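Box 3.1 — From sequence to structure: Olfactory receptor
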Amino acid sequence: MPSFNQSIFHPAVFFLTGIPGFETYHAWISIPFCCLYATAISGNSMILFVIITESSLHEPMFYFLSMLSFTDLGLCLSTLVTMVGIFWFNSREISLDACIGQMFFIHGFTFMESSVLLAMAFDRFVAICNPLRYATILTNSRIIKVGLVIVFRGTTALVPLLLLLKHLSFCRSHILHHSYCFHPDVMKLSCTDTKVNSAFGLAIVISTAALDLVLILLSYVLIIHSVLSIASLEERKKALGTCVSHISAVAIFYIPMISLSLVHRFGKHAPPLVHTLIANIYLLIPPVMNPIIYSVKTKQIRKALLKIFLFKQI
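Predicted structure (token representation):
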């Protein structure tokens, strides 16, 4: 167990936190965490596999779903090493460079997932509000361009943000609140002025995740308006039924993210356990739940998965 005497801190070393107050039980606590990681990795890998191998799923809606599964896999793998290190080997030290590298992937995949959810909302908007032009609007070439924009948008702004962080001085306690590096958490440990970092970070969040959420909500206002104009009640239910999976994915992504942001901004006196639990929910629940939601609610995915499992049994 490392001593946290401030005088021995190296300026480029931080200490990650497992579950505060339950350090002696980390080996046991790692069991449910490992189950969640295994579920997330296997579930999203299976979704990717069926979309790639099943020609019937080579449609815009499922291409966007494969992007969602890819970003969820990226989020899981970005924190897996540090999580295992803490719970199994009590390895809590992480260098500033490694921390910045991990933040690049965590925040990059987070912003990419937000963009994917926006693209999926646009997909549902076109499918319901303009179905006759669906195939001509969402062509394969346009979907590829959307994918490239998502990657570019999710990563480009992070480079200057993390470079700004690298030039800060850290002379306070180097103990982070989470089992992974999170930009606001690291920035709080600096003893130099972080106004530029805070302003730039807020600008990135507003121009990506916040803007995406507003546009997603706007798309559903337009979808609901279009659905209400349908005379048949059955057709209304059918149209809205195609959006259930996406609405669920949006909720389980944005609610934990907003909760974590609020805790970091206003929860200075909140118990460390609250920070840790919300941080783990933010990273693990969406990758775990998205494959389950789409497997249960999407008929084509469910059929493709059953086809694979039944074939294996034969």
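Summary of the box: The first helix runs from residue 26 to 53.
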